[in-house]
Hints:
This protein is an alpha+beta fold. It contains 3 helices and 11 strands. The protein has helices at residues 2-8, 48-55, 76-88; strands at residues 12-14, 17-23, 28-34, 41-43, 65-67, 70-71, 103-106, 115-122, 126-133, 136-143, 147-149. The strands form 4 sheets. Strands 10-9-8-7-11 form a 5-stranded antiparallel beta sheet, with no helix packed on it. A two-stranded antiparallel sheet has the order 1-4. It is elongated. 9% of the residues are buried.
Amino acid sequence: MVSGELHRKGIDTFLPSVTKVRQWKDRKKRVEFPLFPGYVFVSIVPDPEEFVRVVTIRGSVRLLSLEPGHPTPIAGEEIHALKIIMKSGEEIDVYPGLKQGTRVRVRNGVFQGAEGVLTKKEDNHMLLISIDILGRSVGVKILADDVEAAQ
């Protein structure tokens, strides 16, 4: 894992994560997932040698930047606020782009490919989706991970 490798090289990292319920055929299990998949926050001196140390870690791709070659720092206040939120233990809405009334498409499971409207966000990252079938509306509960905004 990139975060662990960075830590072993003495680079200060922050990887906020959330616990989600994953459904397998025979069981449900709580699993840790990054809050921002694909992102690890690092605290480094803005120096080209430090940038190289980070991006040469196996699995690391690049540093976040608005212009190529110039990594964009995240404000310390934002990181601090995120750490406070993570420490609070409060439930975090990890699907802020999916609001009630949003048209969604099911990515996985028995309803894969079906489209509907998000009618309610429930506990344990479950969503209630209304899918129109044969002129009727059918409500189904689906894990939020299995749903994406429809195009």
